[in-house]
Amino acid sequence: MFGLYIKMLGRSLMKRTKYSHLQLRNFCRNASTPSSTTKLYKLSVENNSAYNYLKSSPEYIETFFDPTLLNSAETWKNLKPVIIEFRDFALRKAELELDFNIELVNSIISQKSTFTEEDVRMLLYLTTLPAQLPHPHAPNFEQIWKLLDDECSHRAHSWTYNYYFAMGEFWYLNRLHSYSLFHWQLIKKMFRKCDKLTKTEFIRFMFHLNLVRQIPKSINTYELEHCLSQHIDSLVAEELAITAMAFFKTETPIRESILLTKMIEKVITKAAELDPIFIAALAKTGRLSGRAKTGAILYSFQEAFIPQVDRLSLPACIHLAIIGTRTQVLHESLVLTVLKKVEENLSKTRIKEIERLLLILTMFDINCDSFCYKVIEDLKTAERNTEIEIFGRSLPAILYYMSLRLIFPYDLINKAFDKEFMLKHYGKISTSSNFQKVNSN
Questions:
Q1: Is pLDDT at 58 greater than 90 in this prediction?
Q2: What is the pLDDT of residues 249-286, one digit of tens each?
Q3: Do 329 and 295 touch, CB atoms closer than 8 A?
Q4: What is residue 95's three-state secondary structure?
Q5: Torsional sign, CA 303, 309, 311, 317
Q6: Which of 68, 76, 176, 384 is 20 to 30 A removed from 365 (C-alpha atoms)?
Q7: Cα–chain center distance at 375
């Protein structure tokens, strides 16, 4: 009877709530909460790896503004005094204060009708300089970025693709790409011209598509595959990884098996030198796109990275291991190698990664009982308590996978059944579920 309880828990609570990008964007542009004025946003490590590769590649130099020009005296001398004043303010602040000078904000707003394109560009550039920025809805800061967003949207019709991408870089660096209407406008424009994009433009487009994590509903997703097929022969492994990020983040599988095979074959040749973040991105897309026809090439992909496990990050290892959950093909040697690495670094492994690893271990009935007991003890530590409060939905999933091995940690199960815990991580649960705490006796 108890086994039924925990299986019901796993099946009913493991659903993930998803919202469309537009729903989130509209909510964020209009919502205002007390916490929204204090939270600071940092760049994603994954996105930053892709950005750094593009920024350092000579092939993409034309899609970014020249930093020496941005900071030259010649550029600044023709700008309006209010822009200079904002520059001086931004440069002396490691973090833009939430209540920075309202008079400066009002002055910028009152003069916006006189701004030249250079004024807009440099003012937007200035928002990227502080190491940390307040939440987009922080007082005064919101007025500045929305003004710049509107100006970019209105002026963009005459811009070249490279200028679009260069301005898009600033919206990434100031962490506002998810809020910016201009950035979304960039995505839609590149989709309309997708088949005419050069290789460089296509990869820059893929980078920005990865940021928004959503494809407009009116777009046929086969357009992406068609564009990829046009350029795949000239793409290197890093560019394929950036493309893979866009496919995975927008939940768009690569349906053409020949295309996926070409991608994997190219990446395998760079297995010894590819960045672990790029490897994880390719593994995610491989799992998303996996089919019976691609089972063999994905198995070869896993095989190629067994010698690399020691140098790879834990997330990259986990994502390589779980490719087989989609194709239903187990690469036992890789999975056991990854399991050994995780056991040796359990305290450094995120709870979400433990959940994913247990998924494939139990799916293929691999004896992992000793690992489960180590996980149980680890989940009881104070450090894990904090993590569970943030990623609470991983706990019932882990307990469900353990139940398949007939392992039932009662104290953790009671924690997952706790009404406050369930309310926090799942919202109000139907009374028909009638979950009850269990007694170890």
A1: yes
A2: 999 999 999 999 999 999 999 999 999 999 999 999 99
A3: yes
A4: strand
A5: positive
A6: 384
A7: 26
Task: Give the type of residue at 66.
Answer: D
Which residues, other chains included, contact 181 with Cβ-Cβ below 8 Å and sequence gap of 6+?
Answer: 149, 150, 153
Q: Phi first, then psi: what are they for 18, rounded to 5°?
A: -125, 145
Averaged pLDDT, 173-193: 93
Matching residue, tokens 């070869």:
300
Determine what percent of the chain falls in helix, strand and coil, rounding each to the nearest 5. Answer: 70, 0, 30
Given a cut of 80, whether residue 341 has pLDDT beyond it is yes
Tens of pLDDT, residues 86-99: 888 777 765 555 45
Q: Name the 3-class secondary structure at 330.
A: coil
Measured CA to CA, the distance from residue 323 to residue 325 in angstroms comes to 5
Identify the three-state secondary structure at position 132. Answer: strand
Average pLDDT, whole number, for the chain? 86
Query: What is the per-residue DSSP string for 28-74?
Result: HHH---GGGGT--B---HHHHHHHHHHHH-GGGGGGS--HHHHT-HH
pLDDT at 63 over 90: yes
Beta bridge partners of 132: 95
Concatenating the DSSP letter of every residue in 177-213 gives TTT-HHHHHHHHHHHHTGGG--HHHHHHHHHHHHHH-
